[in-house]
Amino acid sequence: MAAEQQVQLTDLEPIQLQEVKKQLDQELDHLTTSYQQLKQAQAKFRSCLSDLGELTPSAKGKEVLVPLTSSLYVPGRLADTEMVVVDIGTGYYVRKKRSEAREHYTAKSASIQGNLETLQNTIERKQENVQTVMQVLQMKLQGGRGGGGGK
Amino acid sequence: MDPKAGAIQARLQQQSSIFQKLEGDLTEVITARQRLDSQLSENEVVLKEFTLLKPHNTVYKLVGPSLVSQDQAEARGNVEKRLEFIRAEIKRVETQLKEQEEKVGKKRGEIMALQQELQALQPSGPE
Predict the structure, then answer these.
(1) Of A66, A103, B7, B55, which one is least surrounded by beta carbons within 10 A?
(2) CATH number for A108
(3) Which residues, at least 6 apart from A143, have a Cβ–Cβ distance to it below 8 Å?
(4) Is A17 within the bounds of a domain?
(5) Which range of residues forms the domain containing residue A52?
(6) Residue B43 belongs to a domain with what CATH number?
């Protein structure tokens, strides 16, 4: 596969190779941004999981501060430590048992992990492609200086 | 400059600006397609979540700043309808995409033909 690609790349003119590299760089940029976003989403789910861990039956009746805005809090008491309401997306929320919520977030986090791994592989392959293009480009440029250009 | 070459040059410029506009339109359609795709997958995830619900899992819908409880079956129906709508939209945008790509391809061909015409005239220029 790599050899086949090399053959194709060496047929290209330096300007075309630069274009190819530019496009690959753009793709790589996009992929790494997506990777970051996925990482952030996963971190969010994980923090939900650890928050769920805090919510034990013994926390019942404990005083909490409920944020009404980011700067205004009112005191409240934990009346229910068994059920939580989970955001499942597109404006829908579901009341779940703690164990169900934990399953939900664990599954979310795991599915993101799968995506992250696939994405990681894609990024690595892209990086290899960029490397190859760079090498061919360098070869071309050096060869071009000596031999006075290709066909 | 050769008047013939000048005429081609002018046409080339005109066609190029049309081409750029077409390409811009194409980008817009592609963005719309991508947005629909993410909406589709998000709604699919929600629907999957709904199929796993048990009777004690009350469903709430976010209406403005408040959560309003909603019947499970009704919520599922809503999301199914939404999915239907999104799939229909994807089909529509898909045909739009094909049309737009054809337009861009055709225009690219026209521009290349004009460039060749112009190049063919060039050698006769310095003579």
Answers:
(1) B55
(2) 1.10.287.370
(3) A150
(4) no
(5) 22-141
(6) 1.10.287.370
Question: Token pair for residue A77?
Answer: 């008491």
Q: Which two tokens stand for residue B122?
A: 């060039």
The reply to whether A78 falls in a domain is yes
- Domain of residue B80: give its range: 3-124
What is d(CA B79, CA B100) in angstroms, rounded to the nearest whole number? 31
Please tell me the total count of domains within chain A: 1
Half-sphere exposure of B112 (CA within 13 A, CB side): 6
CA distance A89 to chain B (A): 6
C-alpha span between A67 and A141 (Å, rounded): 62
List, in order, residues 6 or more apart from B15 with CB less than 8 Å away. Answer: B107, B110, B111, B114
Mean pLDDT of chain A: 89
d(C-alpha A40, C-alpha A107), whole Å = 16
A88 to B45: CB separation less than 8 angstroms, yes or no: yes
**Average of pLDDT values for A63-86?**
93
In chain B, how many domains are there? 1
**DSSP letters for B97-123:** HHHHHHHHHHHHHHHHHHHHHHHHHGG
* Contact state of A95 with B82 under an 8 Å Cβ cutoff: no
Mind telling me how many Å the CA of B124 is from chain A's nearest CA? Answer: 24
A42 lies in a domain?
yes
Cα separation of A78 and A72, whole Å?
Answer: 18
Best interface-test mutation with A: which of B36, B49, B69, B85 has the largest number of A CBs within 10 A?
B49
Whether the predicted pLDDT of A148 surpasses 50: no
Residue B1 pLDDT class (50, 70, 90 cuts)? low
Residue B16 to residue B51: CA distance in whole angstroms: 52
